[in-house]
Protein: ATP-binding cassette domain-containing protein
Amino acid sequence: MIEVKNLNKNFKSKKIIQDLSLTIQENQLTSLIGPNGAGKSTLLNMIGRLCPYDSGQILIDGIEVEGWESTELAKKLSIMKQSNPLGLQISVRELMAFGRFPHSKGRLTKQDQEIIDESLDYLSLSDLQDKKITELSGGQLQRAFIGMVICQDTKYILLDEPLNNLDINHSIGIMNLLRRLVDEKGKTVVVVMHDINYASQFSDRIIAMKDGKLFANDDANDVFQKDIVDDLFDIDVEIIEYNLRKYCIYYGNDCEECLNNTEDVKTFHQATN
Ligand SMILES: Nc1ncnc2c1ncn2[C@@H]1O[C@H](COP(=O)(O)OP(=O)(O)OP(=O)(O)O)[C@@H](O)[C@H]1O
Structure:
């Protein structure tokens, strides 16, 4: 279980996370949603010990995250950040082998190779395994980074916007894969998601954040209430139900205003062209 207790984080004097307390249950897929700047990535990075916090506690299986020995933490928890370093002249297979490092310390065993093969297969990357990661498309690279995290084979898997750059087919593929990791392998997966309908379709639990504070934390269907989603994103949505899951339909509720501003838009284009 991951427990966050009275967590606070400031960047300079700006409060980014404010007195945040929540629990992430094991063997569930939890989505972190909320508007830009809400503090989702900061929270995920603090749970993954990529960013220190100012006060409060984060407990991973009862031990404060700062107290974990590094290799032991890397066997327990993996994290994929929103942006990953590019420019490394390594192959897809070598990237995925990095994920085995906490287990193999660089000496890959037969079992490590089998796990890499399985992950390549899971992510439909077998054909690309020898290709340099600098030569991949955005979506292929994203899948390779997810593969690296999956190769790490940790109980907790944290992913910051894993669907970035992915087409609909691969997005559904990744979400189905994350579900299988939860349902078949007993993993605990936490994802930062911008597409709230994917979050609704695939999550057990939704944690919504706004302005560094907890806004909602409930079963997916309970968070997907019109008043909650409207207030969370300051928009006007319609909630529909399909196959026992709730989905949001959102219209550009500023459209009338946009139309009224057509002259301003024309003037802007003339000025900039
Ligand atoms: N290293 C940093 N230094 C200063 N401010 C930061 C830093 N990292 C994040 N912030 C600020 O913290 C706030 C929360 O950022 P964070 O990336 O956690 O939000 P988010 O909810 O993940 O947003 P998004 O949906 O846009 O990715 C933002 O106002 C951001 O500008």
